[in-house]
Design goal:
The chain has 5 helices and no strands. By secondary structure, the chain is an all-alpha fold. Helix 1 packs antiparallel against helix 3. About 21% of the residues have low confidence.
Length: 155
């Protein structure tokens, strides 16, 4: 009887070890809106600045200002990105050590979600600062470019 319980417990633990990384991988895949570096593509609409410079007619000063905004964003989100990478291994380790300690694992996931929220808020603020660098005509052109891009992607 003890052997059966031990084998069953071992099988359940093995399934949990396999399921946890898969569940987190699915969650991360579902968050495809966020890059691995913690930047959001929508907020990084100026990511291909060289192309945007030509198409929008950005001045050198505008280009430098926009680069500075997103460099500041990268620095601002650096600690959050680092903490996100370590969280998953900590969650797995908590569950490996004690499969019943779901509350501690959930607390870490909640911290990760808060970090992600802060990073997204930082990205939104950076996008707003970058858009304020543009003239109204440039923003109109950018709006058209984004719409065309989204239309091509949705086909």
């Amino acid at each position: 009887m003890k052997r059966r319980v031990l084998v069953t417990s071992g099988a359940i633990a093995l399934m949990a070890l396999i399921a946890v990384p898969l569940a987190f991988a699915q969650r991360m895949h579902a968050m495809r809106g966020m890059h691995a570096d913690g930047n959001i593509p929508g907020a990084m609409m100026m990511g291909h600045l060289a192309n945007a410079k030509a198409e929008l007619g950005l001045s050198d000063q505008q280009t430098a200002d926009i680069k500075a905004v997103f460099q500041n964003l990268r620095e601002q989100n650096k600690t959050y990105r680092q903490s996100l990478h370590g969280t998953m291994s900590q969650v797995a380790q908590i569950l490996i050590n004690n499969p019943n300690d779901v509350a501690s694992a959930q607390a870490l996931l909640d911290q990760q979600l808060e970090s992600e929220r802060v990073m997204r808020t930082n990205a939104l603020n950076a996008a707003a600062r970058a858009l304020n660098v543009l003239t109204p005509d440039q923003r109109t052109k950018l709006s058209t470019m984004v719409k065309e891009h989204l239309d091509r992607r949705d086909r």
